[in-house]
Amino acid sequence: MENLISEGLSLMVYGMGFVFVFLTLLVFVTNFMSKLVVKFEPAPQPKAAPQRVATAAVAQGGNDELVAVMSAAVHKYRS
User: Fold this and answer.
1) Which residue among 40, 53, 58, 62 is least enclosed by CB atoms within 10 Å?
2) What would be one Gene Ontology cellular-component term for the protein (predicted)?
3) Is 59 in the same domain as 75?
């Protein structure tokens, strides 16, 4: 009976040690890969600001009714 408990405890220690080593290795590899991706990632391209449709329609001498309809749609969507 004493031998069985001893084997169980040693197996528990080896198992917990293996899991600890594996998780520690996983953390280091994940951090390394994160730094590697950031290093070789292309620089982000600046995005052009979207042009407001209603303002563009008014600037081009657009239709007042179109602006009113669009404003009502935006108001209904936001509420």
Assistant:
1) 40
2) plasma membrane
3) yes
